[in-house]
Automatic annotation (TrEMBL):
InterPro entries: ITPase-like_fam (IPR029001), Maf-like (IPR003697). This is dTTP/UTP pyrophosphatase. Nucleoside triphosphate pyrophosphatase that hydrolyzes dTTP and UTP. May have a dual role in cell division arrest and in preventing the incorporation of modified nucleotides into cellular nucleic acids. Belongs to the Maf family. YhdE subfamily. The active site is at D70. GO terms for biological process: nucleotide metabolic process. The record marks R10, T71, Q153 as: Important for substrate specificity. It catalyses: dTTP + H2O = dTMP + diphosphate + H(+); UTP + H2O = UMP + diphosphate + H(+).
């Protein structure tokens, strides 16, 4: 049985797109980057910790496979996680405006006897954003709970001048890589 160690509605939606049936696990994993930890290693570690915490919750099921994922926005080696408030969201969007950032998504599948992972890096270029556009976007509330203070599947899609990589990865679950992992575990044809 597959379990998703996430309460993200976007990840649930994306995993459903693959035709998967799965249980949900609510895990609480600190998302703190360690000093000197490279962004890719940080994102992968957090995704693995989420999957591991989920596996502990269903350890009584010997056939459980748990999917953990994490997605972060990175620019100039700075990780832009979820904004703490409106001012933080506006600051992030002003920094990303007119520039290309990386969106790193890592996915881990773990079971009692096996684990596998994949990382997807997508380059996203925002067009230059005016303060008025940033303020209107922040006021919409869509920026909250999203890495980099934006949801590419929402109004912020209009900010994206160019994308090279995985649209679903920016949303929070790279479908190509996830499907490959699921096939490797015999969970998807």
């Amino acid at each position: 049985m597959l379990y998703l160690a996430s309460q993200s509605p976007r990840r649930r939606e994306l995993l459903t797109q693959l035709g998967m049936t799965f249980g949900l696990l609510d895990v609480d994993v600190p998302e703190q980057r360690q000093p000197g930890e490279p962004p890719e290693a940080y994102v992968s570690r957090v995704a693995r910790e989420k999957a591991g915490a989920g596996l502990l919750a269903v350890v009584a099921n010997p056939h459980a496979v748990v999917l953990g994922a994490d997605t972060e926005v990175v620019l100039d080696d700075v990780v832009y996680g979820k904004p703490t408030d409106a001012a933080d969201a506006a600051r992030m969007l002003r920094t990303l405006s007119g520039r290309t950032h990386r969106c790193i998504s890592s996915v881990w599948l773990v079971s009692a006897g096996r684990e596998a992972h994949a990382t997807c890096i997508t380059d996203v270029r925002f067009e230059p954003l005016t303060d008025a556009r940033i303020d209107a976007y922040v006021a919409s509330g869509e920026c909250f709970g999203k890495a980099g203070a934006y949801a590419i599947q929402g109004r912020a899609a209009a900010f994206v001048a160019h994308l090279s990589g995985s649209h679903s990865g920016v949303m929070g679950l790279p479908l190509h890589e996830t499907a490959r992992l699921l096939r490797g575990f015999g969970l998807l044809d």
